[in-house]
Amino acid sequence: MDDDFEFPAANNDAEMPMDDDDNMDLPVGNSILKVGEEKDIGNGLKKKLLKEGDGWEKPSSGDEVEVHYVGTLLDGTQFDSSRDRGTPFKFKLGQGQVIKGWDEGIKTMKKRERAVFTIPPELAYGESGSPPTIPSNATLQFEVELLSWISVKDICKDGGIFKKILTEGEGWQNPKDLDEVHVKYEARLEDGTLVSKSDGVEFTVEDGYFCPALSKAVKTMKKGEKVFLTVKPQYGFGEKGRGATGDECDVPPNATLHINLELVSWKTVSEITSDKKVLKKILKEGEGYEKPNDGAIVQVKLIGKLHDGTLFVKKGYDEEPPYEFKVDEEQVIDGLDRAVKTMKKGEIALVTVQPEYAFGPSESAQEQAVVPGNSTVYYEVEMVSFVKEKESWDMSTQEKIEAAGKKKDEGNALFKAGKYQRASKRYDKAVKLIEYDSSFSEDEKQQAKVLKVACNLNNAACKLKLKDYKEAVKLCTKVLEIESQNVKALYRRAQAYIHLVDLDLAELDIKKALEIDPDNRDVKLEYKVLKEKVKEYNRKDAQFYGNIFAKMLGQPKSAGAAAKHEAVPMTIDSKA
Known about the structure:
- It catalyses: [protein]-peptidylproline (omega=180) = [protein]-peptidylproline (omega=0).
- 28% of the residues lie in helices and 24% in strands.
- By secondary structure, it is an alpha+beta fold.
- Strands 1, 2, 3, 4, 5, 6 and 7 form a seven-stranded antiparallel beta sheet that branches. Strands 14, 15, 16, 17, 18, 19 and 22 form a seven-stranded antiparallel beta sheet that branches.
- Helix 7 packs parallel to helix 9 (487-499), helix 9 (487-499) packs parallel to helix 11 and helix 11 packs across helix 12.
- The termini are far apart.
């Protein structure tokens, strides 16, 4: 055959580029095929494995693959061979540059794998064939060795940025929006003109740098990865282009850019609070995987500064021992308390804390300076060591009961101090310690029952204060599952139902509570509250229906009309 033999796309409608995910649709992979075995891998395409490949990765649509092959007809007639030419064949997988049988077959291969593909006419050259060497409706066989591939990804799925991996990175993690990345890059126009270059620049991913493509690309990269980007105008400088700046050339309107990009490293920035008002940037990774829990004793080195660099606290330096405190005991500001719970031993991090989680609106005199009101503060923290509070699975049954009682007492003190959120957490922890009591003795089960009732009732009171009425209902219901005649649980659940405007359910709970304890003053007062709510509901209901009927009759609304057409009012037992 001629040395310049090419594989034209088959002339049928099925010759379309394939998505990356198509790799997952094949029913047969090398994990199933054994050497010497042949199977149909879909659409009549057969694969016989001659030699196992390396690793587990396979090329995807868009990747630039390099193969050696020998093509024959079923009678053994050879019509082409890259091995005879001594030059591997390269093409983009899944882009219609070769017959469909190749696109479908080669994406099932691993690096250095050898296989024979038997390709039916509809996945090859069909009725037209490829004269004079390949007749009409010919079934073909190709012995293929996948030498290597360069991954090319359409990272935005719109053809705007194509990424070709030149050097694989380390690990599996990628930078996120808040992370601070360190990159090297070189950007050129299609004619090779250099427009921008840096041997090292740092930026936050979501803020970006140079052009939008850089932040899009780094989010798909691993540490140490080097890539070549083809960037269309929408991710470069668009229709307007960019004027020359300093030593950098201008970028013409609608210019495509070619960018060599290396992700040198990055510093992970995490959201400690969901509102992003406490952020942690890791400066040095810690050891292992354990982190402090609530109640842990931590030892840290600490430097606190204001936005202008003013130092207001420094602990654990200059031969001073590390600063020690107990987590979740309000011994440090809330933002710092939360941040240290995410740190590993030996980790060094920069923690940014906005006023809501720092010193609030009032100024605060600290060790070395006064922190003005509404200040965002910055801490460099090194986690020297920590001792975790004992976990429930490490406790004996009696230790669990004692720890639950202690948490309940802490919750009570916090509730009295008006710290309802923190009190609620204590009650939650107390109940979790004794939640599973199958291994408890009968006496321990009784102690656990009393604690569960008390903690859930007190927690319900916290939820009422915090206006989390649905959770208050759940907690009271848990108590009533244990003690169906518990008046406090009925009373507090009725309060929650009233706030949720479930007035019928509130009435049922109040009536039951009064049946159990007819002289209970608090329940009687709540009954009066309920009656007022019912009256208010009936007034609003009457007005609503009155307005509707007035509109239907074409009459102006009036109190009389409302009274005439009001809905049947909700009633409530007046006995109290």
